[in-house]
Design a protein that fits this description.
Elements (H helix, E strand, L loop, with lengths): L3 E3 L5 E4 L6 E4 L14 E3 H17 L4 H56 L6 H27 L10 H4 L12 H4 L2 H11 E6 L16 E5 L15
The chain binds zinc ion.
Amino acid sequence: MRLLYCECGAIMTHGGPGSKKHYRCRRRAIKPGTHAGEVTIGARGIEQYLARRIFAVISAADDELALAVLAETAGRYAAQREKAEAPEVMQERQRLISERANLRRSREAHHADRKRVMLKGGFVDDFARESWDETERALAERMGAIDARIAGIGDSKAVELPYEEWISAGTDPVGPGSWWDAADFETKRAFIRLFFDRASVSKARRWAGQGVPVESRVQITWAGGIDLDRLPGSEAA
Ligand SMILES: [Zn+2]
């Protein structure tokens, strides 16, 4: 995941069949002072744990550090969206700007016509004057519409996190039927990546395998390098 690291500093990779899916330390050589044997952790257990921690932070809206994490996350989310939109947005803006330039030239030519007419003593009749006015109105209207579209395009700075999509009130955010439960692996990864810089997994020391509670093995560094577990008042693992 490039997010999940072993206590020895090596990256952990995802593998294993079906319900046996896990993350495993991928170190190549044993360095002095690091763990013997393998370090693995059940994939479902740690993914659910990380998701629960994230949803707890989303709910802790009055906690200053949680808010700092959410602000950092919102920034990442906005940056992702801008990246995703950039090519189309840029093309559309280019198109609108050149359309606007054409309109401006048409309008200048139209104004020059009027000047010529006025120098020659004015419009020949009401019809000619009304016709000029009508064209002027249409050009001004189209220009206004294009200006509004140019102003509105790329206005994705103020992106809010889609909380309503992620959480439905009164339900377990990682339970059956939840957004998390239905999300595929890539979506879950991207979601976790928004909130975390890294998570470090220690070896299960007391018992081999799954008997050791996940929370006692995982140390999270949140977005922006924030450690919510080390400070009093934050929700401890
Ligand atoms: Zn390791």
